[in-house]
Amino acid sequence: MRRGFREAAFLYALTAAGVAHAIARACAQGRLVSCGCDPLGYRTSLDSRGRARPNKWEWSGCSHNLAYGVDFSRKFLDIREKVDDLQSKINVHNNNAGRSILSSHMEVRCKCHGLSGSCQLRTCWRATPDFRIVASTIKRQYRKYQYFEADPAAGGRIGLDQPLKQACSSLKNHPASVKQMPA
Length: 183
Fold this sequence. Notes:
With 183 residues, the protein is an alpha/beta fold. The chain has one domain (6-172). It contains 4 helices and 5 strands. The protein has helices spanning 6-28, 66-77, 86-104, 131-143; strands at residues 57-59, 107-113, 121-127, 146-149, 169-172. The strands form 2 sheets. A 3-stranded mixed sheet has the order 1-3-2, with no helix packed on it. Strands 4-5 form a two-stranded parallel ribbon. The longest helix is centred in the N-terminal third of the chain and has 23 residues, at 6-28. It comes from Leptidea sinapis. Ligand for members of the frizzled family of seven transmembrane receptors.
């Protein structure tokens, strides 16, 4: 296929975010033997002198392992794309957009402990958001996608080395220079 459509861009972003989301949660729930809780979720808060900060909460629980989920998503989805193919570069860009949106929506969740729910101590961990939130954000980006045209004089390349932040993109092979079209 030599043409890309914004619907395909939406699906690539949604799929990449969905794979990373599912794997990150599965790691935290102990359903995968190849990973576990996010080790970064257990860092102690430090003050300006580098000493442990006294908190009424602590990192504990099991943070969702987003780093592993994103890495798995990259290896699973991006590996099929060719390095030199323009459509493949667009697909990888859209995959990265979906993973970026998921990463930007990570939450800190806490649970109170104490007599009668007095919250004398809170246990906190990092968690992926409900996937509907991620999907809604990707859908909003889909509605204002970036439209590109390939430049045959430049070997069909477009400027993907400077990725658009959290934007799904689409491609149409046409003998014109690279330009952004209004949605």
